[in-house]
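ok so for the tutorial part 2 we go from a plain amino acid sequence to predicted structure tokens. step 1 is just haveing the sequence, like this:
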Amino acid sequence: MGVGIRELRDGLSRHLKSVREGHTITVTDHGRPIARIVPADGPTVLELMIAEGVVTPARAPRRPLPEPIKTAGPVSDLISEQRR
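step 2 — the prediction. this is what the tokens look like for a chain of 84 residues:
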């Protein structure tokens, strides 16, 4: 169901009741879809993609970033040293 921004604002309670009942509302701006309001109790897009096997969740947490390199001069000097 598509709803313009003004209509959504003017009838927000009514539209949120519809979402609570399980409907999805597409918010439009000048006829172009810009957002969707979906029931919160349903699975997220990511959860659906994992269930379908389209994506695989990470097996391990992200590794920490390496320590920054400390230098007294500009980065171009470091690059020049690496190229020698």
